[in-house]
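hey team, just a heads up i'm posting the complex here instead of the shared drive bc the drive is being weird again. everything in one block, sequence lines first with there labels, then the predicted structure for the whole assembly after. its two chains so it's a bit long, scroll down
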Amino acid sequence: MKTFLLILVVAAVTLALRLIPVYLFSKQGARMPQWLSDLSLLMPGAIVALLVVYSLKDTALALPASWLPALCGVLTAAALQHFKKNTLVSVFAATAVYMMLQRLLMP
Amino acid sequence: MFRRALKLAFPHTLPVMAGYLFLGLGFGVLLSQAGYGAFWALMMSGGIYAGAMQFVTIDLLLTGAGLVQAALMTLLVNARHLVYGLTMASRYQNTGGAKPYLAFALTDETFALLATFPVPEGLEAKQYYTAVSALNQAYWVMGSLLGSLLGQVLPFDLSGIEFSMTALFVVMLVEQWRNKAARPSMLVGVLSALLCRIFFGENNFTLPAMALICLALLLGRKQLGTQEGAA
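-- predicted structure starts here --
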């Protein structure tokens, strides 16, 4: 029962955080203030940048076995996407590079 | 109609599929090791549907945390979703009955996909959004269930496959970079994230970074250029 309640609380708070902004500003005729619509235009680029940093947070800069695969993976993804523009190819090649280097470098 | 939406949305969601299946698998395995079976995996992946927070919830369950503590923790870990809802609000304007689900299913990856790639031609926006959201959650639920059922016995060493998430975010960064107007705000994002990573440590930096980004973009929105297509 306690488990159930705890999961319910986590689910409810998460749902509230996701629903409130969507419902506050998406009603027909509801006009978003200018600063807010500016913000929502500028936000995606900044947040994707933050997500890249966030997803690399467990990379240890003191351990080449940790940061070298990550760096090579990121460069592979960026270069392939820049030149080939194929999301799937970029993601799978980068992940393969990362996994291979990780196995080669880990003792 | 919706089948066509699923078909067109599917290729866009493939990288998320790889990431979600594996992360979900990891979550299911951990949850079963903590003593909670497939029923709980379904409950959490179906009802909470927030990757990082579900891992934290396992800790909360194991340490016997109280409900208030659980609520506060969720608020901190998931505050970033406020921004996603804010950004998608205008696009979700005419989604009718699908709106509650679309809002509920707005995870990091779903948001990033929908904010980056345009709706395929000849497809109603609402259908595309719903298809992407539902496919992504299906991957997550399947991964969790599989992990929960497999428990500790896994046939392959798949460690490192979670890098597909990072690669996906990098791809999105490259795509957004093509839009010159979006570049200054991306630099704001990188700098804020790195600064906060240094000052607040690897486990606590997302919230301050998010606040710093909001502040910087608000103060500099005139200079950063908010003309059409700045997203």
